[in-house]
Amino acid sequence: MGVKFMSLKLKVLVGMIMVMKVASHNYGDAFSKCILFFEGQRSGKLPPTQRMTWRAHSALRDGSDVGVDLVGGYYDAGDNIKFSFPMAFTTTMLAWSILEFGNLMGSDKQYALEALKWGTDYFLKATSVPGKVVAQVGDPSGDHNCWERPEDMDTPRTSYVVNTSNPGSEVSAEIAASLAASSMVFKSVDLRYSRRLLQRATQVYEFAQKYQGSYNSSVGEGVCPYYCDYDGYMDELIWGAAWLYKATGSYKYWNYVVQNNQHLDNYEFGWDSKHAGINVLVSGLVLSTPKADPFVSYADKFVCSVLPESPTKTVTYSPGGLQFKPGGSNTQHVTAASFLLLVYSSYLQMAKNRVVQCGNNAATPPSRLVDVAKSQVDYILGSNPIKMSYMVGYGINFPRKIHHRGSSMPSIYSHPKHITCHGGTLFFESKYHNYNMLTGAIVGGPDDNDQYIDDRTNPPQSEPTTYINAPFVGVLAYFKRYTSLESLTFDSNYTQYHM
After folding, report:
1. How far apart are CA 66 and CA 159, in angstroms?
2. Most buried residue, 40, 193, 208, 377, by most Cβ within 10 Å?
3. What is the per-residue pLDDT across 231-277, written as a single tens digit (0 to 9) for each?
4. Which entry of 333, 403, 404, 450 is annotated as an active-site residue?
5. What is the rounded distance in angstroms from the CA atom of residue 126 to the CA atom of residue 134?
6. Which of 62, 148, 236, 463 is catalytic?
7. Catalytic residue (choose from 76, 79, 151, 268)
């Protein structure tokens, strides 16, 4: 009788575990796909190891108009332009993800390193001429008037360059930050390459600081209105200095951060605004030291700006629980904020579980930051009112008509004949699913009422970008540990499981 009872109890236990396993998101699978996405965004000559096999070589003459090899890098979104400003932020976030959570990435860490190096290799080319930095490749007006595969494109591949007479401090300093952060990643992988990245980072940062000015004016219509710098370049100069201080330990960079900290009382973080990222990054260096102020207090304010229960929150939440900010491509804010919450939570835990105080609310422990980040991750992966995964290829119900040229058209392998600029309009306007799956791509996401229109003609919702995915690499690496059954524990006093 006792044996039968124990056998039944074991069956129930196993059954409950399997239910929990089915009900939980597979963060490991999502993590692998999140990295794979970057292979679909590659420009240039693709390597033999390319896994997104519907893509082929493209833009092999980039830079020929200025006599510099600019082959490589990433297309930022669903178009075929290489915008250095968001590409550099993407690269910085890939590097930061690996620095913080690389030990959790398992066998996929190698793919994360490859994704990072695809960016840094390009930026070494884009900064190869002293006193000049390539801000962009490709004419946006020509490109946006066409719907062409990157392998076919015959629109102008104009190189937009900032220099000592026409500076671009924001794009230059962001590139410096990406190279400095990446130098730390490669220090244990390829020391020679790491040193090369750091040396270039210092040179480019010196250029950014010595010749100050916005690329809005220097490049003009090349970047505006697509990636104008809307909040000035001071945050990028501080951001670059913070990363160079972390990489070198040189106090000249630290002094610059401290001397300009009055510019950092801001809760924003993304390709344009680096304020909250600077405060969280620097907090990790000074949290338990006399140098904590004002960075830690600013980082706390960022946390309070996004916690749902905070009396000082500056974001809204949809009825289904997604963080929301005005403008298109909302998931870019969600993935970036989630990354900062997880990183800051780790820093708080290392500082003997320091808490955050938001107004008169009860003190917020580090675990609460993780909970909020997880709620956003789960929403993106399908735990939302319409049960839609906003990552292409993850789950069963995900966007099939994303705003992405290469994905929406037959590949060059299945349709070798050249598709002209306006020949692609047929595919753009088609009501059918995209021909090729851009696995791992996270689209702009639903509106503030949790509704999503699966339509490639609606880019604010249906377009993926590299800077949406890049912070999510670190976020998913963090939660990847919860994918396995071993991470679930059973408490016999409760009929539920806890991670």
Report:
1. 7
2. 208
3. 999 999 999 999 999 999 999 999 999 999 998 989 999 999 999 99
4. 403
5. 5
6. 463
7. 79
Q: Structure tokens of 82? A: 């290489």
Here the tokens at position 116 are: 């990072």
Q: How many domains does the chain have?
A: 1
Token pair for 238 = 């501080």
Could you tell me which residues come within 8 angstroms of residue 385 by beta carbon, excluding any fewer than 6 positions away? 319, 320, 450
**4: in domain:** no
Residue 391 counted as domain residue: yes
403 is catalytic: yes
Q: Is residue 278 part of a domain?
A: yes
Q: Clarify whether 154 is annotated catalytic.
A: no
Cβ-contact 77, 226 below 8 angstroms: no
CATH code: domain of residue 30:
1.50.10.10
294 within some domain = yes
Which of 65, 371, 454, 455 is an active site residue?
454
Which residue, chain included where needed, has tokens 């706390």?
300
Query: Which residue, chain included where needed, has tokens 């409950």?
Result: 16
Q: How far apart are CA 291 and CA 314, in angstroms?
A: 27
Domain span including residue 236: 25-498
Cα–Cα nearest to 49, from 128, 152, 118: 118
